[in-house]
Specification:
The protein is α/β, with parallel strands linked by helices and 331 residues long. The chain has 2 domains: 2-111, no CATH class; 115-313, no CATH class. It is built from 12 helices and 9 strands. The protein has a 7-stranded mixed beta sheet with strand order 1-9-8-2-5-3-4, with helices on both faces. The chain has a two-stranded antiparallel ribbon with strand order 6-7. Helix 1 (2-43) runs parallel beside helix 8, helix 3 packs across helix 4 and helix 10 packs across helix 11 (288-309). It is globular.
């Protein structure tokens, strides 16, 4: 009797704590909603130089004030460059990546106000081996099984999607925000630019349906996971583990995979690069795991090429590689 009463009081206490936490989270999300809504209206009246300046300053301040994330970003950049984590150049790159992320965030707040047609006209196509990036899209869609656009937290993936959506039907896999108003506000900005939204939760069936209609699905792929939850890839000479979902969906549907990126280039100009489409192959003996691994490695080979050339455009603020003696030596 006493034990049950004590356990009941403990449960009530933890219920009260959880309720407080939920209330705090709801208040924070509500504040973010009103900030995003007001910021979007204000951003439309803010010159680009000022908007980017404010965003960069905010990103830099976050980097300086968030010690744990600052250290993680430095460790990632140390592996990217092959230098010590204490190298001044590594720290410069880490700081610059946060400033660039602030610029991206400022542009995302202003996303609804962008004239994508005008932006595309000014965008520099850096694709190689083709006359233009659209050739790779046409090649990917030619078999009639759709295309998975593999992109990353690199440059400005929303601008990339909006440009692509002007040419072919495009759906993007996106996380759902807990606050319904915030989720509607942010996702509706993408919908208004012609990008269909597939919620990340339970997305596999919807993705397969889109691919079966020979349409395109964009997925931000760079997300490290535990070894027992992902596919091993070699990235900047070190093994890490990433989701194999994009490759598995391509293999199941027969869709091509086309890596593609848009980023902030020189002279306030967007740069764009599409990579040649990667087609899934049937394996003897039905070894699908081996083919998923191959496709995933191809995706990360293109990302490595982009990050190596433009490291400050990669916004990776969580540990991307598992800790190992070899990586500790690099650090």
């Amino acid at each position: 009797m006493i034990t049950r009463l004590y356990q009941g009081r403990i449960s009530q206490r933890f219920w009260f704590i959880d309720t407080q936490r939920n209330t705090v989270l709801e208040d924070e999300l509500s504040s973010i909603y009103w900030l995003a809504r007001g910021g979007s209206a204000l951003a439309g009246w803010t010159p680009r130089v000022a908007r980017h300046g404010l965003g960069s300053a905010g990103g830099g301040a976050s980097y300086l004030g968030w010690r744990s994330k600052r250290r993680v970003t430095q460790q990632n950049m140390a592996i990217v460059t092959g230098r010590s984590v204490n190298d001044p150049y590594v720290r410069h790159l880490a700081f610059a990546s946060w400033r660039n992320y602030g610029r991206y965030a400022a542009d995302f707040i202003n996303f609804a106000n962008f004239d994508i047609a005008a932006i595309e006209l000014e965008t520099r196509d850096m694709s190689q081996g083709a006359n233009c990036w659209q050739e790779y899209v046409e090649r990917a869609l030619q078999p009639g099984r759709g295309v998975v656009i593999a992109t990353a937290h690199f440059g400005n993936w929303d601008i990339a999607g909006a440009i692509l959506a002007r040419h072919v039907p495009l759906f993007a896999v996106a996380e759902t925000f807990p606050d319904e108003r915030l989720n509607h506000l942010l996702q509706n900005q993408r919908i208004q630019k012609g990008i269909g939204i597939i919620p990340m939760e339970g997305s596999a069936r919807r993705i397969l349906r889109v691919l079966q209609q020979n349409q395109s699905v964009a997925i931000v792929v760079d997300r490290p996971v535990e070894a027992d939850q992902g596919v091993p890839v070699t990235f900047f000479g070190h093994k890490t583990y990433v989701p194999g979902g994009p490759a598995a969906l391509a293999l199941k549907s027969g869709a091509a995979i086309m890596p593609g990126y848009v980023w902030y280039g020189h002279h306030r100009q967007f740069y764009l690069r599409a990579f040649p489409p990667i087609f899934p192959q049937e394996r003897r003996g039905g070894d699908k795991a081996e083919e998923v691994a191959r496709l995933t490695q191809c995706i990360y080979a293109s990302l490595e090429e982009m990050v190596r050339e433009w490291p400050t455009q990669w916004y990776m603020f969580r540990s991307f590689w598992p800790t190992s003696p070899a990586e500790e030596a690099v650090k």
